[in-house]
Amino acid sequence: MTLNPSDCYAIRHLMTVCGDYARQQAQIGFQVFEKGVDDYVTTVDRALDQKLLTGLRALFPKDGIITEENRATVRQFQSTQGRLWLIDPIDGTDDFIHGRADYAVMVGHLVDGQPQAGWIYAPAHGRLYWGNPAQGLFWQEGEGSPQSLPPVNPPLVPGQGWNLVIGDKDERRFGAALMAQLPGVNFVRLGSFGLKVLQVITGQAGLYIYLNGRVKLWDTVGPLALAQAAGLVCCDLEGKPLGFTEPQVDPDTVIHRQPIVVGWPQYVDQFRPAIQRVVTATVASLA
Question: Is the omega angle on the peptide bond into residue 247 within 30 degrees of 0, that is, cis?
């Protein structure tokens, strides 16, 4: 990690300014547009996308930058070597649209095809999280001082319940079968990919699975940099490490081709095989 302290401060300031703008606009009102099937964007997403792009370009003019709402920037996935920034102006847009709190502004730093740093700001909660595998994890509330964020590995006790973070679409498709096959499981539901990963980092859950096949690099790079800094396992259903380059990522859309499992090692070891069997059987039954 080669970012100097002034750059790190500037990124945190940019994130909080953008997130606070989103929180203010949520109270004032905004427009919503449909950009695909069950996929929406707001005027706030677009404004923050440009603000973050402009801010990071000023800080890192030699680096590649990909943003969710400026699709022309996706070409940099193939043309940029070395350092690449990923911007998700509002992660959890559905939650933002419906006035719920679990959305976030996210930035991730990908270096030589590996997540190296991430920033997640939850405006409705007033909390900014950031870190990298070399220096650890930190958080800040409001204008308070930065604090260390110690990861919490929740105990896995036989016969007691445990929490699995899962998205709405995956729960509708696989939830009943997972409940039947995973002893003691309780589902945790919230919007943002980044905030879901933080549920595992902070010990609110032991495992997070994403099976929907739509998640993109701007959703994953920042949160998974934090997950790796926390010591979590980041793999697919076969236990293979997640990739952030071709062929594991589609070069035209930057969609992950691998299903995603993020969790504490003992949870991944114990439950990943059963989850893989459930997914395989469910998909086969629907074919």
Answer: yes
> Is the CB of residue 165 less than 8 Å from the CB of residue 159?
no
pLDDT in tens, 152-175: 999 999 989 999 999 999 999 999
Rounded to an integer, what is the distance from CA 193 to the centroid of its chain?
Answer: 4
* Paired strand residues for 186: 163
Count CA atoms closer than 13 A to 201's CA, side-chain side: 27
By CB neighbour count within 10 A (0-12 exposed, 13-18 middle, 19+ buried), where does 51 fall?
Answer: middle
Number of structural domains found in the chain: 2
Q: What is the pLDDT of residues 3-32, one digit of tens each?
A: 888 999 999 999 999 999 999 999 998 999
Same domain, 73 and 137: yes
The partner residues of 249 in beta bridges, in order of sequence, read 256
Q: Could you read off the pLDDT of 64-117 as tens digits, one per residue?
A: 999 999 989 999 998 877 899 999 999 999 999 999 999 999 999 999 999 999
The verdict on 21 and 131 lying in the same domain is: yes
Helix axes 168-181, 265-286, angle to 10 degrees: 100
Structural domain span for residue 126: 5-148
CA atoms within 13 A on the CB side of 99: 3
